[in-house]
Amino acid sequence: MWGMNVAATEIIDRLGGTAKVSRMFGISMPSVSDWKHDGIPHARVMFLRAAHRKTLAGCDLDAATAPRKAEATQTA
What we know:
- By secondary structure, this protein is mainly α.
- Helices cover about 65% and strands about 0% of the residues.
- It has helices spanning about 5-15, 20-25, 30-40, 40-50, 60-65, 70-75.
- The longest helix is centred in the middle third of the chain and has 10 residues, at about 30-40.
């Protein structure tokens, strides 16, 4: 099992927590919780980078990004 993605966890916390982020994207809380382990999907990070620049200043958005499926398959 994978460890925590510390950068993704920090971003979720700065945005108000799992429940608030799940409402922001219209997805389930367990999906957002999975991001804390798997990383935040690339498209979601792109949105957050544009929409929450000030809130996320200093966060490592690249480290929080989930590996794309093709990249993950190649490294496995």
